[in-house]
Amino acid sequence: MVVWTDFERATIQDIFSKLDYESAGLNALTRCLVVYPWTQRYFAKFGNLYNAAAIMGNPNVAAHGTVVLRGLEKAVKNMDNIKGTFTELSVLHSEKLNVDPDNFRLLSDCITIVVAATMGANFTPDVQAAFQKFLAVVTAALRKQYH
Ligand code: HEG
Fold first, then answer.
1. pTM for this model (two decimals)
2. Cys-Cys with 21: which of 4, 57, 69, 88 at CB 3.0–4.6 Å?
């Protein structure tokens, strides 16, 4: 089981309590689809992903960015059982969506960049370490049902 310090717990709760899910979700997913264009293959039904402007203005990308962050919120609320919380989501990504699990880290890094850009100087090295630990645990949970 993952051990969280009080600082880590407080930091994660604090970041999510202040997060604007709509804009952070859109910005993180857009960044992922632009910087790692092969991730677009999973979102064929989203319509026009032709270039950065099209991705940024695509309402399906915006909606899905928010869905991802709402998914992360579940982990924030269940920090002592993230693996259990994401069992079904892991099966979905593995067996139905066939998402290459390496992509979890790529999207996680995009989320980190967006959060860092929003927090500015408050995104200290300690805060960064706590946030990246949280995303690493989420990624491990999402990978768990792959075989
Ligand atoms: Mg995934 C669906 C969360 C990474 C591709 N993703 C979903 C859903 C959630 C979610 C909550 C909705 C599940 C449902 O409808 O029951 N995704 C989620 C998280 C992360 C992640 C928390 C990692 C931080 N997803 C991820 C990555 C890809 C991907 C890296 C592909 C590059 N997700 C994906 C697709 C769908 C979901 C294609 C289905 C979208 C749809 O049908 O609208």
1. 0.97
2. 69
